[in-house]
Design a protein that fits this description.
Blueprint: H1 3-14, H2 40-49, H3 52-56, H4 75-93, H5 97-106, H6 115-125, H7 132-143, H8 154-161, H9 172-195, H10 206-212, H11 216-231, H12 241-259, H13 268-284, H14 291-298, H15 303-313, H16 316-327
């Protein structure tokens, strides 16, 4: 028996009857020979960690655009915090921790430079629209590995596609990531807002603090414990009604005071115009894009979609540098 087969047997013996087992995957679009060491979801996790889009997350905005402080979250640190929250919940519920980790690490691979500002700009200007959860799936299916994609399992792709609030994941592991994404950004965006001087903990309404705590850390702990308690032994992953209501109120509070705060978002209009300008530039000069994107057009992909793919894949820093290279006059040397 191989190491992989031993691990698969451990899953059957130990995990919850509601867990997604590696041996019961719906498989990959292109069948592959199994690894002798790693079950399929572990293999997917490793592919995501080693892909280009994952590395790019370190220079993509979470909430604050290009912050001067070195302790603010980026899209990568957000992803890692989602993964950690999700693994903690999955382990407690005896669900498949490797599937949860793969979904969590891949859920934001399609995010744009400048966070949701970049997403809004591309959704507005590209005729096909732009939604980062769909772009994350497109990234792993089409854009990575020079157009071949990562060939991930159905369960991982489904979890990535359905991590949005409106999504309905087909696995409990996907449901864990869907909740973990929200509790992660509520936790760290509030923490960053306090660090930035935009909010104080005392600004959080008392009716919320009474239910889920008065600090970012206590709220995170409360969310995780509540999900574990409410979901234990159930064929579902959920929060209790009072905590779910408090989370909704906290999200509205964050939306009103951080995500739409003029001080925190003062540069977003510039970021949106920069993204739109780069999109228009490459629509006229598609030959200036890297070879991968030219190949996609040769294979029949619409130019609008491919230009959107390229601009959306940029990091904040690269997008700014590219804009300066194209549009900002240089000093005569």
């Amino acid at each position: 028996m191989t190491i992989r087969e031993n691990l698969e047997q451990w899953e059957r013996n130990y995990l919850s009857p509601y867990a997604s087992l590696s041996t019961e995957t719906k498989g990959r679009r292109i069948p592959e020979e199994q690894c002798d060491i790693r079950p399929v979801f572990q293999r997917d996790r490793d592919r995501i960690i080693h892909c280009r889009a994952f590395r790019s997350l370190k220079d993509k905005t979470q909430v604050f655009l290009s912050p001067e402080g070195d302790q603010y979250r980026t899209r990568l640190t957000h992803t890692l915090e989602v993964s950690q929250n999700a693994r903690t919940i999955a382990k407690a519920l005896k669900l498949n921790e490797e599937l949860v980790e793969a979904i969590a690490l891949g859920h934001d691979l399609g995010h744009t430079p400048f966070g949701h500002a970049g997403e809004r700009a591309l959704n507005r200007i590209c005729p096909f629209g732009f939604e980062h959860h769909k772009q994350s799936v497109r990234t792993v299916e089409r854009l990575e590995k020079n157009g071949r994609g990562l060939n991930l399992t159905y369960e991982v792709r489904d979890g990535i596609m359905n991590h949005q609030t409106s999504g309905t994941p087909h696995t409990l592991e996907g449901k864990i990531v869907r909740l973990s994404d929200k509790i992660a950004y509520i936790h760290h965006d509030m923490d960053d807002a306090v660090r930035a001087g935009i909010l104080k903990e005392s600004d959080v309404p008392e009716e919320i603090r009474e239910v889920i705590g008065s600090t970012s850390g206590s709220r995170l702990d409360h969310f995780i414990h509540d999900i574990v308690t409410a979901s234990m032994g159930q064929n579902d992953v959920r929060m209790s009604a009072p905590v779910a209501e408090a989370m909704s109120k906290m999200r509205r509070f964050m939306s009103d005071n951080v995500y739409r705060n003029p001080l925190a978002k003062s540069e977003e209009g510039k970021a949106e115009r920069l993204i739109e300008t780069l999109y228009q530039h490459y629509m006229k000069h598609e030959d200036k894009m890297p070879e991968l994107y030219l190949l996609l057009m040769e294979e029949g992909e619409a130019k609008e979609q491919v230009v959107c793919d390229y601009v959306g894949s940029m990091t904040d820093r690269f997008a700014i540098a590219t804009y300066e290279e194209i549009y900002i006059p240089k000093t005569w040397k």
